[in-house]
Amino acid sequence: MNYQIQLLIDGQWRDAGDAQWLDIVNPADEGVIGKVAKASMADLDDALASSRSGFTAWRKSSAMERSAFLRKAAALVRKHAEEMAVMLVHEQGKRLVEARVEVSGASEVLEWFAEEARRVYGSVIAPRSPELRQYVLHEPVGPVAAFTPWNFPINQAVRKIAAALAAGCSIIVKGSEETPVALARFVALLTEAGLPAGVINLVFGVPAEISQHLIASPVIRKISFTGSTAVGKLLSAQAGAEMKRVSMELGGHAPAIICDDADLPRAVKLLAVQKFWNAGQACISPSRFLVQSAIYDESVAAFQRLAESYATGNGLEKSTRMGPLANPRRVAAMQALVDDALAKGARLVTGGVTPHGKGYFYPATVLADVPRDARVFNEEPFGPIAAFARFDTDEQVLEEANRLPWGLAAYVFTSSALRAETFKSQVESGLVGINSIAMGFPEQPFGGVKDSGYASEGGADALEFYLSTKFVSQAC
Ligand code: NAD
Q: So what's the pLDDT on residue 1?
């Protein structure tokens, strides 16, 4: 295959102004599968001008029109789902089944926001004088700049795009240069569904140059980013200097607490699914496995059996249970984390060795007896490593769960209602699974606390981050 991914600027697909391109690589075999246009500053200025006029038009559309558009887009995405799923496997490496879930999830997000678009309510406040009328109105915040990563190329983008469009905002999306193919097809379907020129612009290029240029522009009124905490803090600081609103969906380091009264087979089965989905490259992936001493050895052994069933391979092969990592940086990061943990006294239970040959593969890895000072217990692994340590008391494990600066997802497995209540209220985390991993669906809030960011990308709250409040005091 030979994908040629252009920029979408003001309704036209075009090459970069100075004809620069970047290669796109298939992580399963390291072959070049196409190229993506690298935007120049002049291209970005065109996108900004387009986004300004797109906003002027789109904000005048009615909520019913925006809702109808989003429904139509969802149907088109469903119709072309398989094509985009295969693209995701080619460029990102995930298994085809995971790619299908990602694309069907994107349709659901569009449908959710089609409904939410119709539920933007204002209010009337009782006046202090009979000649006054007082209204609270909600309006679209303005043109949005969104920066989306490579782990879920469509799904991380659709949450921002659908919310912005539902609210009446225009949006400039900077997708990941490493995974631009399926996202470009997805955006093309939005334009096919009838989105006017300028309401969405899609650019790729040098991330730092693009974010700096867009955030500094007076056209842009809101920044939304998904990615690492380090970059999120940088963009938040840039946005703060320009007094612009931000939504930040950043990293995590999810504790998975297994208590001695848990249904162990269920806990291990669900946590393995959540750990190795997308080869562990998910911000809600469980990463610190904290197991109560009485069931520790049994838990590690059960998890090892499951981890060893995750055969790696090309995501298009039926026999594959885990695809490659998305880029060579992640493979190097996995090996460095494992080597560091072993040097500090952890025990390698399975995996832990970078295979020879083509492709960015890394095996499902289990580390036991990981000391608290190991890097893997302090840096988000963002890959297929399950690091285990034991605990004795609930106080101890809560302290460990809350020790790190992040707070995105946390998992607790216990059969005690009392313990469930305690963990639910005391874990510092935006998302908590109690005997459950069901999170990330469009109707559920999605966002972190502490260094994991702020604002929610799902549920009934999500639209408010794309709206501003206007108070009107009117004499009559
Ligand atoms: P990175 O931190 O350089 O990049 C993370 C993402 O941010 C990428 O999509 C990148 O294109 C983008 N980015 C980087 N600098 C930027 C800038 N100045 N302006 C705008 N966008 C910018 O590193 P990486 O190797 O791509 O990923 C490593 C880490 O990022 C992972 O370990 C993980 O912690 C985090 N990450 C998190 C998510 C998530 O879903 N929250 C997704 C991808 C990566």
A: 86
